[in-house]
């Protein structure tokens, strides 16, 4: 076989392999004109039978995708769609805050997107988050360890379909509950990179915003934070420290009656505070209401949910039909356990 024929066969293989990796999205409902970046969406099957299908959004770096870092973004909760990371946190688009009138909410470009210097995979995980689904009924119970293994499998399969990114510096990134997943994922990648016969992932590090590490311990630090922000008095703070011995909210070890009474007083001082931004009005009572106002902290997430549940959006994103109805239901502070 001559070299020309070998080259053509190799080129055909690469092109066909890449064609199976996902679908290019050039237009999105709510955004005027063609997208000013390259967006690919797709599914990667897990396991030999591929019963679990993990959905992803991949945005190519707007700078130098051949050399720029490749990032994996995991959303928190767990169970929130990575669409929140894309539209609300680090992506090149966001939802325009305007009163919802029943039509497709508008999208506008951002100036702060991480895609200006990195390519990013936004992954919907675990199964049941966003557009990720499973053909198994009922779903298997999962654990953080199981999810770490699935994400690692996803990365290997995704990179096998996108071999041009194998040499790019790789970073695992995310927020909130991703703090429980990403360190274990990094350890898994590091160990698996030494195993024979699989292309290594060019791991360089990880980035986690507002990470969960030990919920019981972190929850207790709300008292110290509230005092530092002048939300409670010095007298209440000193009394709490003296009577509760650093355990304000956890039932184990048991708390004294004096401690319980002081914690009740603390809650009265802080219950009406916005858990995500103390400088903004609290509108937790609007989370499950159709009467949510545009000045509410959660209004963008309200619009995101309606955008993502629009049929034309599903079609544009190449979502497989007859799997799941809703893509995303926003979870308020008490629902996601973050406050």
UniProtKB/TrEMBL annotation:
One Pfam family in the UniProt entry: Peptidase_S10
Protein family: Belongs to the peptidase S10 family.
UniProt keyword Hydrolase present: no
UniProt-listed SUPFAM superfamilies: alpha/beta-Hydrolases (SSF53474)
Signal peptide location: 1-21
Protein name: Serine carboxypeptidase-like 9
Keywords carried by this UniProt record: Signal
